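Researcher: I'd like a structural prediction for the single chain below. Treat it as a standalone chain; there are no partners to consider.
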Amino acid sequence: MRNLFEQPKQKIAAHTEQRDDLTLVVRCKAEEIAIVLKLIESAEETSAHTFLDHTEDFIEAQLYVSTLVTKMLGQAQQVAALREKEGGPPMPPAPERMRDDRVPAPERLRELMCYARSMIEDPDAALVWIMMPINIHDPVGYANLMTQTLRHSYPRPWCHHMRVIARDDERLPLEHSKAAFQRAQFMAVDFGPKSTEDALVESANDEGLPLAERMTALLVLAGIDAAHNRTADAKEKYKLLTKYHHALGDNAQWALSLSGLADVAAREGKPREAKDLYLAALTPATHAKSFPVVLNLSLALGNLHFQNGVFVEAATWYHVAGELARALFNVDTLLDCYEQEGVSYHKAGAHKQALEAWSSGVELAKAIPVRDRQKRILTRKLEMYTELGLPKERDKTQLELQAVDQLEKQEAQPKVQA
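Model: Treating it as a single chain, here is the predicted structure.
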């Protein structure tokens, strides 16, 4: 496994830290993008730089840039809200040219990247801008956007303090445009299912490797077994991992192993066993202060109770998960929790509690803003008022939905300078 991942991981990490090359082009299949992003994440863990990744499909240049602009503006609003709450410096203003779809797409993308770089408070940190579109519908258009955007000149290149990682797919649009790139390196990876599983099996069985590394490979193999419904194999591996990490006193890994066993039990239709295992995993996860794991366990308990019709218990766990998500500044998960808490209470007939959860979700979605989520939760309120025969509340909620629709249309209009 080390051989399969270590070389590309080192190449990615080296690219983010060096100053000679702007771009690293990584050729990979769509199903390998998640692994490439995981390797990039491992480089981020030991880096002082800021990493921003984008997996949106490339259909056409202007549409692609507009999608990234909308995404970045949403992220900027979230960061601005957090900075204001913590008394940090204000956000820099977003350049109008990047919003204007009459401006050529490469220029807009450069403006967007420069804007993202300006949001970084550390003047010495670099922006690592990652473009890994899952689907590239127009390879020629994609290659043209990449080569034209990334052109620069000295002594003052626009891309100062930036690194770029860009995906190339099997048709090699960027490889074929290699001559048009400045300061670029190219690499290819092969993380197909068979290559990956074979490498993991090799690592798990390699007595020359440190035991901890072999156990890490075994944990990934257990997850692969579970995903392919090889439940007996998955269970055997997770039980071994549980004993190993418990004996070692590694609470974080012990919790993950117990969580894996619980997932297998849930898949086998054994909710009581799954519940006991999830609850057991909470103790070591809490002792390890591994709060993302505690969050995932709380969500799993909410989902388990919901799927088995224990709706008040499900709502309680979604509420717990929401509080953890709030503490971790995980806004998307917090919105999920508000929505699912409300759905659970609604199914339990606890309409007041459902409305309280949904109202909190609407307010958060409005403040960020996340219009599609705001509308979805409002729609849930509307349906419940209709179901309960409350026309006054129903009509008020309908007006709120219409107002959000109008706001969404206004925000979608490109803003240009007069």
